[in-house]
Amino acid sequence: MQNNQANYTENLDEILISSPDLTVIMSSILAKGNQVRLRAKGWSMGPFIRNHDIVTIAPLTQKRIKLGEIVAFKNQSGDKNVRVSLHRVLQFMDYENYLIKGDNTGNYPDGIVSRRRILGRVIKIERNNRSVRMGMGVERRLIAWLSKHNILISFINSIREINTIFSKRKSR
Amino acid sequence: MTNPQLNTIYRKSDDVVAREIEGELIIIPLVGGIGNMENELYALDETGREIWKLIDGQKSIHQIIDELEALYESDREIIERDVLGLIKEISDRKIITICHAE
Q: Using CA atoms, how far apart are residues B40 and A2, in angstroms rounded to an integer?
C-alpha cells in the first residue's frame, strides 16, 4: 500500500530483513492463526514456485501434512544460519518426521524434518497476478515420487519436449 | 479519517505483529487473517518508535505529548505535530485502535 503523504511510516517495498528475522516474524504471524503472504526467492522449487512468485502460507493447525504438500520450514545450517525454506514433503518417516526436498535441488534433500520445524503449508502461489495451481493438486503425489527418485526435472523436460513437438506439428 | 483528538486514548491493535529487528520496528497488519509481507510491511522511524512505545491503551494523546516533551528538548508544537501525524497514519492503517474518545 503506497501513501504519498506518509511521513512517519515507511512502506517497505521488499523484505530487507534477514532470514532469521523472517523466521521470527513468520512464526509470530502463523502462531496467531493467520496466513502469511510474501515473495519467494530462489530457484529450488522451480518450475512450481519460481523466483519472485508470491506465496501464501497457512498455519498447520491440527490438519495432517499430506504427501507432496509444499511446506515452509526452518532450514538450518550451522549454529546461526537459520532461514525459511519452501520445499516439498516426499515421504512420511513417521507421524512427526518427514523427508523434505526442493523440486529443483538435484540429489540433495533437506533431510528428515520434524513437524515442530515446520511453520506452515503453502496454499496459494501467484505469478503475474494469477493464481498458479500446478503442483498443488492431486499431481503433487506424483511430483513427490518423481522428486524422491531424482527424475522429476528430466520428466518435466521430456514433457516440455513432447509439448514442443506437438505444437510445431499443429502449427504446420 | 478525521484528525485524532488530544483526549483520545489509543491502543495497539490485536491484529498486528510488531517486532524490533536490528533497531527497526517492523509492523505487519493482519488484514482478513493474512499478514501480507509482500506489500503491507511497515517500518517506524526513530520518532515513530518512541511514540509507539507510549501507545498503551492508558495514555491519551495529550499525555503522550506531555511525556515526550519532558524527555526531549523540543518544541511542544513539533512534538504534537509528530504525534498526531503518526497516530493518524497508523490508525488509518488499523495498526492502532481507539480505546476511548471524547
A: 9
* Best A8, A18, A54, A55 residue to mutate vs chain B (most B CBs within 10 Å): A8
Helix H or strand E encompassing B61: helix B61-71
Q: pLDDT 10s per residue in chain A (172 long)?
A: 233 445 666 665 544 556 678 888 899 999 989 999 999 988 999 899 999 999 999 999 878 899 999 999 998 766 567 788 999 999 999 989 999 999 998 888 888 999 999 999 999 999 999 999 888 889 999 999 999 999 999 999 999 999 999 888 877 7
User: In terms of Cα–Cα distance, which of B68, B92, B63, B87 is closest to B78?
Assistant: B68
Interface test with B, best of A23, A29, A84 (most B CBs within 10 A): A29
- For the packed helices B76-92 and B61-71, what is the interaxial angle rounded to 10 degrees? 130
Q: What number of CA atoms fall less than 13 Å from residue B31's CA on the CB side?
A: 16
CA B52, B58, B63, B64: dihedral to nearest 10 degrees? 0
A–B: how many Cβ contacts below 8 A? 92
Is-contact A16 A62, C-beta < 8 A?
A: no
DSSP string covering A75-135: EEETTTEEEEEEEEEEEEEETTEEEEE-TTSTT---EEEEGGGEEEEEEEEEETTEEE-TT
